[in-house]
Amino acid sequence: MSLVEELAGIVGTGHVLTAADEQQPYVTDWLGKYRGSALAVVRPGSTQEVCAVLAACDRAGAVVVPQGGHTSLSGGGTPDGSGKAVVLSLTRMNRIREIDPVGNTITVDAGCVLARVQEAARQAGRLFPLSLGAEGSCTIGGNLAANAGGVAVLRYGTMRELTLGLEVVLPDGRLWDGLKALRKDNSGYALRDLFIGSEGTLGVITGAVLKLFPEPRAKATAFVAVPTLEAALGLLSMVRERCGDRLTAFEFMTDVCLDLVMRHIADARGPFSTMPAAAVLVELSDTDGEAALGERLEGTLVDAVGAGLAQDAVVAQDGTQARAFWRLREGISEALVRAGKAAKHDISVPVAQMAAFVREAEAAVEESAPGARPVVFGHLGDGNLHYNVLRPEAASEEAFAAAVPTLTRRVHELVVRYRGSISAEHGIGQLRVGEMPGCKTPLELELMGALKTLFDPQWRFNPGKLLPPGLAVRPPLQ
């Protein structure tokens, strides 16, 4: 019996896809940047089926590529072109298993789409706070594999902070049941945290216990003009001091970002009569009344203007205006696509050093690609910047493409010097895997390689992602 026949016997013939046209959505990433091929795309419907599928693949020595909503921005869920991989799609595993409004937890299948989990929490009068652009298609398993962040990290943390327990199938088909709703468990190594952020290289997450929170009854949103990034950081400190944990989002964008949005997004409207040098989108949320929250934000912004940290501010008067403010922030990525080719960097640096980093990065960009235009925006409160660079207007696409490797190397070398990360929330995948030796110490890579070999001795799980292949031959720790 062939492996494909054995897999069909486990999940059903209709859930083993071998025809090229059926496989196409699973072997091409959603940006069209990475294309591969597969021996088969397998769509199990339960954890037990995942165990059986992986045991069969283990016996056959087959390469396995776990896949969730397939929304990775780094090619993390796309197979290579060898045609030997089994793509394991978990989208059929989409049950909400349990909601506990007393313990404030929700237990879900890994294939649940994020928006469905948000809605299930909302129906129970609770909040699951992870929020990002792909929430209508990305899955919880993928969010966990990439340790997703989103716009509310400042208050609620990344997926690592939002997760209590996991259910994971190991590469040989064994099941680790760590599906516990405990907030305190000091009984050994935190195995859960190894799988979160592992990008499908250590095993397949099939279920998770996630934290819920009281649903905010009030929000206050403001769009604030600031003179400099340094002023924005000062404003961040003031809002944190005055508003505490009510601060949910603090999004930064430069005038270049706003100009792109105004030119390329039809429904975008700026709240100021003139273009500011930079702007911040501030949002508070609370279980108190909306009037009190709005007064708190307005009072803070009045003092910020008086201190020179802000030049102007508009507080949203209703949900429609708040959504218009968010449209300005969320439209930046769309505007970038319409503006042309850009070199993209998803980086994080210590918040206090962000302004210094941006100054040095601008100089590095100008040296590497004179006339290139940095488009700087992101989650200022947690140190995550999307540092994109648009092609110089006078340069051809070919000339800019030739300059991008040097430009990216310079930016990432600077990130490392500032003790930051070259991937804040998009993952390493196959996009940045070749850069890992430049941003991790030899000991870090040795330890990561040893863990990979422990869980996946033959390095069959999601090869070519996250870990450089050469680590497989590193000697064990002495």
From TrEMBL:
Q: Which InterPro entries match?
A: FAD-bd_oxidored_4_C, FAD-bd_PCMH, FAD-bd_PCMH-like_sf, FAD-bd_PCMH_sub1, FAD-bd_PCMH_sub2, FAD-linked_Oxase-like_C, FAD-oxidored/transferase_4, Oxid_FAD_bind_N
Q: What positions does the domain FAD-binding PCMH-type occupy?
A: 34-215
**Which GO biological process entries does UniProt record here?**
respiratory electron transport chain
SUPFAM superfamilies reported for this sequence: FAD-binding/transporter-associated domain-like (SSF56176), FAD-linked oxidases, C-terminal domain (SSF55103)
**Which Gene3D superfamilies is this protein grouped with?**
3.30.465.10, 3.30.70.2190, 3.30.70.2740, Uridine Diphospho-n-acetylenolpyruvylglucosamine Reductase, domain 2, Vanillyl-alcohol Oxidase, Chain A, domain 4
Q: Which Pfam families match?
A: FAD-oxidase_C (PF02913), FAD_binding_4 (PF01565)
Q: Does the keyword Flavoprotein apply?
A: yes
Q: Name one GO molecular function term.
A: FAD binding
Alphabetized, the UniProt keywords read: FAD, Flavoprotein
PANTHER family given for it? BLL6224 PROTEIN (PTHR43716:SF2), D-2-HYDROXYGLUTARATE DEHYDROGENASE, MITOCHONDRIAL (PTHR43716)
> Family assignment?
Belongs to the FAD-binding oxidoreductase/transferase type 4 family.
Q: Know the name of this protein?
A: FAD/FMN-containing dehydrogenase
Species of provenance: Chelatococcus composti
